[in-house]
Each structure stands twice: as C-alpha cells, then as structure tokens.
Specification:
The chain has one domain. The protein has six helices and no strands. It is globular. Helices cover 74% and strands 0% of the residues. Helix 2 packs antiparallel against helix 3. The chain is mainly alpha-helical.
C-alpha cells in the first residue's frame, strides 16, 4: 500500500488520460489511419463501460459484450491494415487479435482465473496505444520529408 504524501492515481484514470492524449495527438498530427484507429479505441473504451458485467461478476465467465466489441475493433484494425501502406496497423491488428483470443481461451478453459482473463483481455490495450503513437509520429515525419514546406 502506498504510504507517501501524494496519493496514487488509480490505473484506470491513467489509462483515460493516456487514451485521450493519444487520441488528441493522432487527430492533431496523424493521418487518416491514425485518426480512425484512435477513434476506434476511444469509442470501444466508452462502449465497454455500458456492456461490461457488474464488477463482482466481471471476467468470471466469457464476457460476450466485450467479445463483441473486441471483434468489431479487430475488424476495424484489420480493415485499416488492408487499406494502409503503413506497417503499424498490422501490429495493432495483431495485438487486438491477442485480446480477442483471450475470450476464446476463457470459453475453452472455464476455470481460468478471472484475474488472468482480465489481464489477458486488458493488457494489450497499452501496446496498441503505443503503436498508434509511433504510427502518428512516423506519419508526421514522413509527411514532413515529402512536403517540407507544408
């Protein structure tokens, strides 16, 4: 337990700050793919709060609502990857596939601990956001090299 003077910020608050910071950065400096990917992440996170099971029961069974959201996000990232000439969307789609597979794992292994299921389903959100940041930064750099005056 934290015993310092400054109170610890719960991880979900840090995630929201990170999510909206990356969303803003993608819309400020990114191309079409980055804007769409960041928007997908924000919308999926918001919708998740409406379909998730009550906290006491969360991740004890297959979260069908979260599975549906994760499948839609996977389709969105795969669509971006198929359309894009950039490499980062493949990473985002691959990470999202890992998230989606966590639901299959829970369906196959019903005695999987809820914390392990939750960790598998939630952890990969951070690498996805990191990939979007890298993609946004590189998109800006590529545009500047192609069009230095604009």
């Amino acid at each position: 337990m934290w015993s310092g003077r400054i109170p610890m910020i719960p991880h979900y608050i840090l995630f929201w700050i990170l999510l909206f910071s990356i969303f803003g950065f993608a819309w400020w400096r990114g191309g079409t793919e980055e804007k769409i990917a960041a928007s997908i992440c924000v919308l999926a996170t918001i919708v998740t709060h409406f379909v998730a099971s009550p906290l006491a029961q969360r991740y004890s069974n297959v979260e069908t609502g979260l599975l549906a959201i994760d499948l839609v996000v996977l389709l969105g990232f795969v669509g971006i990857a198929l359309y894009s000439t950039r490499f980062w969307p493949l990473w985002a789609a691959g990470f999202q596939l890992t998230v989606t597979m966590s639901h299959l794992l829970k369906g196959v292994q019903l005695d999987l601990l809820p914390r392990a299921y939750a960790a598998a389903a939630v952890f990969w959100s951070y690498p996805i956001l990191f990939v979007i940041v890298v993609g946004t930064w590189r998109a800006r750099k590529v545009r500047f090299l192609r069009y230095p005056s604009g």
